[in-house]
Amino acid sequence: MNAATGSGAPATSPAILSPRTPGVRLKVEQASYAYAATDRSAPKFTLGPTSFEANQREMVAILGPNASGKSTLLTLLAGMARPLSGRIEVDGVEVSMLDLRTRAQRIALVQQESELLFPLRVWEYVLQGRYPYGKRLRFESEEDCLLAGNALAQVGADALRDRWMDQLSGGEKQRVILARALAQQPSLLLLDEPTQHLDIGGKVELLRRLRRLADDSRYTVLVVTHELNLAAEFSDRIVLLHKGKCLRVGTPAEVYDRALLEEVFEAPLDVEMRESGRPRVILGGNH
Amino acid sequence: MIPTWRGRFAAALLSALISSAALVVARDRVQSATQTSGPAYGVPRPLPLEVTDEVGRRVKLPREVKRIVTLAPNLTETIYALGLQDRLVADTNFCDTPPAAKWKAHVGDPQNPNLEAIVALQPDLVLATTSINRVETADALKQLGIAVYTTDPQTVRGMLDSVQHMASTIGEENRGAELVGRLQQRLDALRAQLSDRPMVHVLFVVWDQPLITIGQNTFIADALRFAGAESVVLSKQQWPHLSIEEVVRLQPNYLVFTSDHGPVATTLADLRARPVWRDLDAVETGHVVNVSEEAIRPSPGLVDAIEQLAHEVHSEAFAEKRENRNAKFATRVTPMTLGRAGQECNQCAR
Amino acid sequence: MRPLTPRRVAWICAGLGVVLFAAAVISLRMGAYPISVVDIVKTLFSGAVGHWEGIPSEYRSIVFNIRLPRILLGILVGASLSTAGAGFQALLRNPLADPYVLGVSSGAALGAIISLIVAPHTPGAIQLAAFAGAAATTAAVYFLGRRGGQLDSATLLLAGIVAASFLSAIIMFLMTTLSGRDLRGMAFWLMGDLGSTLPTNPLPWFEGLFAVFVLAAGAIYATSSDLNLILTGEQEARHLGVNVHRVKLVVYIAASVLTGLAVSVSGTIGYVGLLVPHVMRMMFGTDYRLLIPTSAIGGAILVVLADTLARSVVSPTELPVGAMTALAGAPVFIYLMRRRVR
């Protein structure tokens, strides 16, 4: 370990942050789910049997309009609910069987942040990502500080370290939340509609960063989104959901079929193929 | 700083042992210091007596009671009536009857007297009463090893008994018997004079807005009966609330207001100006009487008040004029006058 | 990046401990009966070694039976209330929460008033009954405050407010219909009173109370890392590995025990549980690993000082402690609020 005081320079060796063993990182096998608020009402959150896989260094986009089952799938992936049928495995271990702390060491979820009650500094917030390691009542070690600092550097938020959380802009806050997730040293990074409140520049920057994280630091990144073009541009695989059913899994080129997209998103659409091999979706027909 | 881990551990263990030992020793000392058995001060008194007070608490008395502290105005008044005021070292802020009582040292108010002040006075006996003092005060004083005698007068007869008990506790049974005898004589004489008279129906007004009166089992109701008056309200509660309509229905012969160095309802003119009140028979005939607050305490002065009230409401039965009445203390009972609002109660000489 | 270390916690607590010690010394000195500091020290010393010559017996009585118990009780009550307050603020996700908002104090008051009616002269009855009332209310509000089998902050708050008002109404009903001498003590109880009667052998009683305090406060402290995370969001905390359900239950029970403890020995002393955690936050930050111990010591300091003021400002009359805690605490709070840069 180098003698860095935890401030400033990012880690020279990605090995400190790189998550675990290579191989199939995430395996979803016929996972389905149904949740009804009461016994007599119709199930509210449903997901038909869904299967797909993801390796390290891959970015998968879970795509679909509202109420298509994306959040349900994310809940299952995060281990917060047990699938009704099928399995979800991370690093070969079934996710819902893990205890809370071990799960937090493997899977990190990035959501829109709840409102903070009391003022908190950025570095304090990011340090909280180290919670899954160590005892319940814990005081952070030097290693924790180092890792948190590295996480901040990886998202390019080093300069924000001493700022107050409630003084950050939307994009800055997004990066800090991501840094806390990275501080967990997860195998799997889940993001729930991360581009919602960002402008186009912010969206692109975020997805680029995620792509870099996947490529350089060997994370497996899963993004739930309804942004068709960004998903096509940056992800290796797309899982297309519609009304609780998984319609198709494959590369963007494979999934973006015009008829299919029109049916799912209920809008006149056209699909163009670009030189990079990635499709682009534009408004089609008379509008 | 000790360099090695073993050294640090040894140091920690040693200091833990030493502090535990010190803690154990200190604990024992403090325990014996806080335990109280017997009086908290001075040389142990010879042969203490033990009596049971009026609430059932056992009280250990010294042979000689030279220093007394009273915690209620009626008790102070009783001490003065017994002629034992020289032994009274302190009373409360509220003790104002007789006026000389105001110049005694005070230990605070009856509800929350200052325990330190009481302890510092080293009293032989503290007098308390259930009508105004808290149970906690008496308990605390007992814990401190101070003799506390609590009276519990529920009736006029009970008040006389209390006076006797207090006198005995102080060691002056004879004075007590003499005072009680005189008071009882006056009450008997009064009863004789009123024997053939019907009871006058009164409404005793503790507070007029909201209208609060007394229950039938209260001390005041009993006192009224001695004066030949009966409260029109029969209630098991102590301070029942009443609506003025009920009073109209009951139509008492007399209204008796309590005052606090000044009338509650200012004057008869004010009453006659108030709707509903002005239609009451008692208001129309001017049968309204003020009774000063001190008059209705369970103390010897109560007998004065009873007599004066009887003279007011049964004036036909008494030949002598009002001016010739020989009151030991200032007049307690005055008819409500028509006079100007805010007029100071000129009968409440202070 | 300077994370909190156990050493820093220890230093800050030691500093506050010194302030508490000073407050206790001042409190020992003040009282209706003048005893000089020298004499107090001599009396304490005599108590420690067991020789009583040369010490007037009223000194012994006043120092060991009146002042010292009040100070110890004040420390206990102040520490309990502020720790509970800090816990409830995290549990309910509400900076305005205080230990009484969930109705625990009303339940204790009801227990107290019932014991005053049923067994007015039994020593210790009022404390036991008050604690029983507090425990029953805690359980009732827990069952009312659940949603989907788990404690939900908003539902809990509502349940607590409803319970508090309901119990207060019953208390008012009892006090008016059964008005009389027995219930006079209630007024003092409701205003807060550190002069409660001690049992004949007070030391084991104090030890028992302090043991309960240490257990309950310790349970809350053990969750302080968890609470830090929960304060950034319950969902987020869950995803970071916090067992949110269990933490909330532990904090709820422990904070209610602390509140019940404080209220049953001294009635309802207000503002301590609300003000002290905020003041400590402003001074030392929002990290619960530091906030819990500093709140405890800070609360003890506040109550000891307030009680000292209450019994010496217009001696021999004693003012209610609750009024003093507000008077003493509020200006400090305002000062700190204005000093904040942000």
What descriptors fit this protein?
heterotrimer; B: 350 residues; alpha/beta; Rossmann fold; 2 domains; five-stranded parallel β-sheet; five-stranded mixed β-sheet; 11 helices; 16% strand; elongated; disordered C terminus; C: 342 residues; mainly alpha; ABC transporter involved in vitamin B12 uptake, BtuC; two-stranded antiparallel ribbon; 74% helix; globular
What would you say this structure looks like, in words?
The complex is a heterotrimer of chains A (about 290), B (about 350) and C (about 350). Chain A contains 9 helices and 12 strands. With about 290 residues, chain A is α/β, with parallel strands linked by helices. Chain B has 2 domains: about 130 residues, 3-Layer(aba) Sandwich (Rossmann fold); about 140 residues, Rossmann fold, CATH 3.40.50. Chain B is built from 11 helices and 16 strands. In chain B, the strands form 5 sheets. In chain B, strands 5-4-3-8-9 form a 5-stranded parallel β-sheet, sandwiched between helices. Chain B has a 5-stranded mixed β-sheet with strand order 13-10-14-15-16. Chain B starts with a helix and ends in a 15-residue tail after the last strand. With about 350 residues, chain C is mainly alpha-helical. In chain C, strand 1 and strand 2 form a beta hairpin.
